[in-house]
Amino acid sequence: MIDFVLRSLLILYFGVAIRFVYLRYFKNIKTSYMELLNGIKNPKTPDEELFNRKNEFINNIYAIFLIFIIVLIIGICQKFF
Asked: pLDDT tens across 26-70, in order?
């Protein structure tokens, strides 16, 4: 079940979008959406492959954090309203 959620494309896109907004507008790092989504296109070394896996993992963590915040907000709204 968790593997399905982490591999879901919708979750990945949410994570990339949040990470892109955070890096581009809050930390002022020049990056592109596609660079964060795809990573290094043709990894030739183990370090580049590791970078791509780490990039995907970080995107998933951002997405799960967003879902957790949304669930928390919905729970608070249901409790008090």
From this structure: 998 888 888 888 888 888 899 989 988 898 888 888 888 888 888
| Count of Cβ atoms closer than 10 Å to residue 11 Cβ | 19
Note whether 39 and 56 are within 8 A (CB): yes
Distance CA 70, CA 64 (A): 10
Residue whose C-alpha is closest to residue 6's, from 60, 55, 53, 69 = 60
This prediction has a pTM of: 0.73
Q: How far apart are CA 49 and CA 45, in angstroms?
A: 7
Rounded to the nearest 10°, the torsion over CA 56, 61, 62, 64 is: 120
